[in-house]
Automatic annotation (TrEMBL):
Biological classification of the source: Eukaryota, Viridiplantae, Streptophyta, Embryophyta, Tracheophyta
GO MF entries: 3-oxoacyl-[acyl-carrier-protein] synthase activity
NCBIfam families: fabF, PRK06333.1, PRK07314.1
GO BP annotation list: fatty acid biosynthetic process
Protein task: Catalyzes the condensation reaction of fatty acid synthesis by the addition to an acyl acceptor of two carbons from malonyl-ACP.
Subunit structure: Homodimer.
Any Pfam family matching the protein: ketoacyl-synt
SMART domains (UniProt xref): PKS_KS
Keyword flag Isomerase: no
Record-stated family: Belongs to the thiolase-like superfamily. Beta-ketoacyl-ACP synthases family.
Record-given protein name: 3-oxoacyl-[acyl-carrier-protein] synthase I, chloroplastic
Superkingdom of origin organism: Eukaryota
Keyword Chloroplast: yes
Length: 485
């Protein structure tokens, strides 16, 4: 014990510099570094050993988090656009989330009576009026319609309408709106035409409206945005990957403004049937509104949903220069891979916990600063607990953290989920209210974090993170906070 204490004390002296050591050494990056000596033998060996020990000890001391201060690299949110089961208005969307009424219902878009799953977070009465002309609206796949409306609404919200954009350098504005599955209706209809009527009956729009990059492309075509433009497809992690990529474009100086998010329209026969085949969906047909129940012991799978969520991400310098309304700040993010299984998460949550840790490092945030998590929380047996285990590995004290699951109310929007949940996270920051996680009747004993069960709660969010994970082991985490000049 004495040897240990003695070693610790001598190391401490080296680290913090006693008068004796300062007189015998020089300061180097805040540490005391011994002078070089030509002596050999024990004295030199001891000096080298101490020097190595100092470096080893220093490497184990975590650096204090440093948030970005350069206004060219600080990224703020200046606009939001949504298409959801609760409509196309951001405030109405969040107010409905706060109310805690489920948006899940029986499918009526097609005859699902023979399916073992007959419900979804299906969008009804969708209108693109004022955003897509009638001719194109009739042709476009729903995935593209949702993307265009959410994207243009986000631009409007950021005061980047057509007239304003025409006066700006549009080569400095890019678009990254991803989708996990693309134009599934177009693909399904095209395949049916090929089989029943022959190749001549396949629409010339089959390829353009099926491929996943077309949402970003159409936003750019309609608005003249010539900056970085592509899509990312990482299943249910898609939108967060887009946020992370867009932020890096701004930080590198490739663009000043990015239109970013996700879109999905999978509530069609093949979309629902595919997830039934994966055995991923809840089969609670008698109580569809109670089917999505994250962390509840009676959960039996997720509920398929749809929609689009888009943010305008902008450098602080750009936002201040044009007098934009700053809603919140994007602090950072990260992406990792489980490298484990196509559909199942790692039980130890290693890929997720490392992603959370890396996102906080990128954001310049310590774990103690985070007090809100919008969880991936799909309502699957393995996924819910794997995420909780990962969270508890990173946040040793969760007593101040509140965590909720947006999917409990609107279902799982797949590639759009991260976009919808980023908006929910930002609205939690700006309103001071967290929406509930509904259908919390019998919480898993391992879940020791406040899940905001069934009723909304007031909560001042200091730093919030939003998690999204996808088939293939794709993990993504983004970090948001109130904007402080």
């Amino acid at each position: 014990m004495e040897a240990i204490v003695g070693s610790a004390c001598s190391t401490s002296a080296l680290l913090f510099g006693s008068k004796e050591l300062v007189s015998k050494g020089i300061h180097y990056n805040g540490l005391v570094r011994p002078f070089e000596t030509k002596q050999t033998g024990y004295i030199r060996a001891k000096s080298v050993w101490k020097s190595r020990q100092v470096r080893a000890m220093a490497s184990q001391i975590p650096a204090a988090p440093k948030r970005e201060k350069d206004p060219k690299k600080r990224i703020v949110i200046t606009g939001m656009g949504v298409v959801s089961v609760f409509g196309n208005d951001v405030d109405s969307f969040y107010n409905r989330l706060l109310e805690g009424g489920s948006g899940v219902s029986l499918i009526d878009r097609f005859d699902a009576s023979s399916f073992p799953v007959r419900f979804a977070g299906q969008i009804r009465n969708f209108s693109s009026e004022g955003y897509i002309d009638g001719k194109n609206d009739r042709r476009l796949d729903d995935c593209l319609r949702y993307c265009l409306v959410a994207g243009k609404k986000a631009l409007e919200d950021a005061n980047l309408g057509t007239e304003v954009l025409e006066s700006m350098d549009r080569s400095r504005i890019g678009v990254i709106v991803g989708t996990g599955m693309g134009g599934q209706t177009t693909f399904s209809n095209g395949l049916e035409s090929l089989i029943l009527k022959g190749y001549k009956k396949v629409t010339p729009f089959f390829v353009p409206y099926t491929i996943t990059n077309m949402g970003s492309a159409l936003i750019a075509i309609d608005t003249g945005l010539m900056g970085p433009n592509y899509s990312i497809s990482t299943a249910c992690a898609t939108a967060n990957y887009c946020f992370y990529a867009a932020a890096n474009h701004i930080r590198r100086g490739d663009a000043d403004i990015m239109v970013v998010g996700g879109a999905e329209a999978p509530v069609i026969p093949i979309g629902v049937a595919g997830f039934i085949a994966c055995r991923a969906l809840s089969q609670r047909n008698g109580e569809p509104q109670k089917a999505s129940r994250p962390w509840d012991t009676d959960r039996d799978g997720f509920v398929i949903g749809e929609g689009s969520g888009v943010l305008i991400m902008e450098s602080l310098e750009s936002a201040m220069k044009r007098g934009a309304n700053i809603i919140a700040e994007y602090l950072g993010g990260a992406v990792t891979c489980d490298a484990h299984h196509m559909t199942d998460p790692r039980k130890d949550g290693l890929g997720v916990s490392s992603c959370i840790t890396k996102s906080l490092e990128d954001a310049g945030v310590s774990p103690e600063e985070v007090n809100y998590i919008n969880a991936h929380a799909t309502s699957t047996l393995a996924g819910d607990l794997a995420e909780v285990n990962a969270i508890k590995n990173v946040f040793k004290n969760t007593s101040e953290i509140k965590m909720n699951g947006t999917k409990s109310i609107i279902g799982h929007g797949l590639g759009a989920a991260g976009g919808l949940e980023a908006i929910a996270t930002i609205k939690a920051i700006t309103t001071g209210w967290l929406h509930p996680t509904i259908n919390q009747d019998n919480l898993e004993s391992e879940v020791t974090i406040d899940t905001v069960p069934n009723v909304k709660k007031q909560h001042e969010v200091h730093v919030g993170i939003s998690n999204s994970f996808g088939f293939g082991g794709h993990n993504s985490v983004v970090v948001f906070a109130p904007f402080k000049p």
